[in-house]
Amino acid sequence: MDALRARLPLVVFAVSTALLAIGGALWTTDSDAAAEGFWLVGASLGLISSLTSTIAAVRRHRPTVDVIAVLALVGALLVEEFFAGAVVTVMLATGQLLEARAEARAHRELGLLLERSPRTARRRTGGTVAEVPVAEVAVGDRLLVRAGDVVPVDGRLLGPAVLDESALTGEPLPVERPAGETARSGAVNAGDPFDLLATETADASTYAGLVRLVEQAQASTAPFVRMADRLAVLFVPLTLLLAAGSWAFSGDPVRAVAVLVVATPCPLLLAAPIAYISGLSRATKAGVVIKGGATLEQLAAAEIVLFDKTGTLTQGRPKVVDVAVAPGIDATRLVQLAASLDQMSPHVLATSIVAAAHARGLVLEEATGVVEEHGYGLSGRVGDQTVALGKRAWIAPEPAPEWVQRVGRRAALDGSLTVFAAVDGQPAGAFLLEDVVRPDAPRMVHALRQAGIGRVVLVTGDRADTADTIGRIVGTDAVRSECDPAEKLAVIEEERLAGPTIMVGDGVNDAPALAAADVGVALAARGATASSEAADVVLTVDRVDALADAVLIAQRSRRIARQAVWLGMGLSLAAMVIAAIGYLPPAGGAVLQEVIDLLAIGLALRAVLPGRTHTVVLSSEDVAMGRVLRAEHDASLAVVEEIRAVADGLSSPGADLEPARRLLVRLRGDLLPHERADEAQLVPIVARALGPGTTYALTRTHAEIEHLVSRVGRLLEEWPSGPSQPEDLVELRRLLYGLYGVLRLHNAQEEEIAFSLLPAQA
Predict the structure, then answer these.
(1) What's the sign of the alpha-carbon dihedral 599, 600, 603, 606?
(2) Which one, of 519, 438, 521, 531, lies nearest residue 166 by Cα?
(3) Pick from 352, 366, 361, 346: nearest CA to 323
(4) In this structure, are residues 203 and 212 in contact, taking their beta carbons and an 8 Å threshold?
(5) Per residue in 177-212, is it b (16+ CB within 10 Å) or e — as a string?
(6) Distance between CA atoms of 432 and 465, rounded to whole angstroms?
(7) Residues 421-432: pLDDT tens digits?
(8) What is residue 220's DSSP assignment?
(9) Burial of 611 (0-12, 13-18, 19+ CB in 10 A)
């Protein structure tokens, strides 16, 4: 039945057009009676269709201009203006077909949420384990959760566990839960099997509540009201008054029919849907799927944007941001050894370390004898060396070296995860991992403000200090942290009091908020999620700045739609007056209305042409050069990490200066040539794309890097013979830490200003 209802507008359009065309062909052969018969059938079909839609609108207590079409067709049939009636039918059928396609938005299904819902559980009974339906789990049951399983119900851990809770909190990093803590349904076991004591039934557990939140949010979403319906309150009475006046004044009912025929509001029914369909097409080419014309109009009207953090403003996965090494250890070699071992592990942190090695252009070796020490880490042999990766307590037990303590303090301050490494049984270094900000996020927020968005809010389940830092970097107006899905809904309802809202997220936990906002936007470039089902807009490219393009496209499409509608309706009003005074018969009025329709459609089709967007399209030559420079940029990160390690090693009088001299060779031979290439080649690319005013910061930091390296070189070359003096070490450390800070900031600038312009590689 639903499929038939969806095809009905197309069937009516095809049949009415065929009837009009056949009648026209017969009329040219002087078969007037037969032609009138086909036109009569066409007009009758239009009357049935428009009468049906009018009755449906009345039942919904919704104003509609379809009543004009009903009166026009009834009048045409009564005065035997069958050709005019057939033309009106084709106009109406065309409008209904285009409107159906423009406003056919995808239903907010819960398919993926339900698909992910736990269906069975493994219950321990005595010494056996039996698989039972999750609905049969009772409070107090002891359950086995295997590696990779979804936790079936809320419960208390009977042993330690490593859980991926991203579906519930949005936090991308696995968390370790000790025995006695609560594990929530919907989390995934990312570690070893563990036992769970059920404390809730399936219906009362966390994941079931999340599904209900989405259902409730969907039920509260207001339906879209057509532009035609909003104008019907004024247009219908005006038309009826003019038609009745012309009939009363002239005594000729044909004049009233002519007014009604010309008044048939096809510019309303055609122009807006066509402009919206054109906008949807433009958005799709930009990597944005907008689910219907209703959503496009709401997107154009939005004033407030709310963002989730993880996977939206941040990458959504851990990234190695620094490598700390023990004295005498080469950081590049440590990365190579660790990645060679970790390539055997599917763990998310192992994937990040392998990615860091690939970014540095390192060739991985084969690892042998790989053994996983449950709850601690991974060990094996790479070449002729034994390598171990894992927790600090396993790699560097107390009393830990000073460098290990520094790493711990830094990780605590930055909110970083750490993976420690040992080589041949000795602690060798540590990897610090963070969920970093997307490089295109700050420019996207700026572009949204230029597009008219007045307020940007970060709403996340993450802790306050991390959320505040992200908010400052991307430039949000407010930060709401430590919010669960229900609290996110409350924030949206609060913000909606100030204006229409957009909610942007990428995880299952965002689905209720996406469904509740006026427009929900999901990032689905890394795979479909329940959030994309609940969303009105889906970004299919892994670039959050595509949202700014979507807003600009929506605003332009709405503006063009309104222009076409008002021009078309203005011409229709003029034609109505001419028909009322007797200078336009019904048949001529129907043809003239078709001309007005074509004009309105032509204006509406401008929306398919390219307009102003936020995304900059680089030439193929600039893209190729940018990727070469990006590869050099990634390779230079090892030198940046070495700067800090060398500075840390200068903490005591009489420190060895040989590492600093080796570092100077790398700064002059590797780092400075790369920075000079950036100044000569990357800066012009940015200037061509964004304008010369955007490159001043890059040029200034290039000069500062040259200056600091030069000072380090002069200090080392003029170093007095004999033991190093404390004041000399202090000055060298100051220069190295300063250079490290400038390079970290400069690299962030390049990521945000320059490399974010590069298209994603397949």
Answers:
(1) negative
(2) 531
(3) 352
(4) no
(5) beeeeebbbbbbbbbeebbbebbbbbeebbbbbbbe
(6) 18
(7) 999 989 999 999
(8) T
(9) middle
User: Three-class SS of residue 177?
Assistant: strand
Q: pLDDT tens digits, residue range 405-444?
A: 888 888 888 778 889 999 998 999 999 998 888 888 888 8
Top pLDDT among 107 and 459 is at 459
CB atoms closer than 10 angstroms to residue 252: 13
Q: Would you state the pLDDT for residue 180?
A: 66
What phi, psi does 652 have (nearest 5°)? -130, 150
Average pLDDT score over the chain: 80
Contact indicator for 669, 676 with CB cutoff of 8 Å: no
β-pairing verdict for 319-325 and 426-434: antiparallel
pTM value is: 0.70
Token pair for 469: 């830092």
Locate tokens 């269709």: which residue?
Answer: 49
pLDDT tens for residues 34-44? Answer: 888 888 888 78
Contacts of 147 (CB under 8 A, 6+ apart): 189, 190, 191, 192, 193
pLDDT band at 303 (very low <50, low <70, confident <90, very high): very high
Selecting among 141, 164, 308, 510, the annotated active-site residue is 308
**308 tagged catalytic:** yes
- β-pairing verdict for 120-125 and 142-145: antiparallel
Structure tokens, 493: 């309802």
Q: Over 90: is that where the pLDDT of 305 sits?
A: yes
Kindly give the pairing relationship between strand 304-307 and strand 501-505: parallel
Peptide bond into 401 cis (omega under 30): no
Parallel, antiparallel or unpaired: strands 417-423 and 385-390: antiparallel
- DSSP codes of every residue in 699-715: HHHHHHHHHHHHHHHHH
Contact 360, 326 (CB under 8 A): no
Report the length, in residues, of the chain. Answer: 762
**217-266 pLDDT, tens digit each:** 444 443 334 555 566 567 778 877 888 888 888 888 888 888 877 876 65
The answer to whether 152 and 162 have CB atoms below 8 angstroms apart is no
Report whether 160 contacts 194 (CB < 8 A).
yes
Best CA proximity match to 307, nearest among 213, 444, 186, 433: 444
What is the set of domains in the chain, with CATH numbers? 2-105+224-277+555-608 (no CATH), 119-201 (2.70.150.10), 290-315+437-540 (3.40.50.1000), 319-434 (3.40.1110.10), 620-757 (1.20.120)
**Does the pLDDT at position 55 exceed 70?**
yes
Q: Can you name the residues that pair with 434 across neighbouring β-strands? A: 319
Spatial contact of 239 and 246, defined as CB atoms under 8 Å apart? no
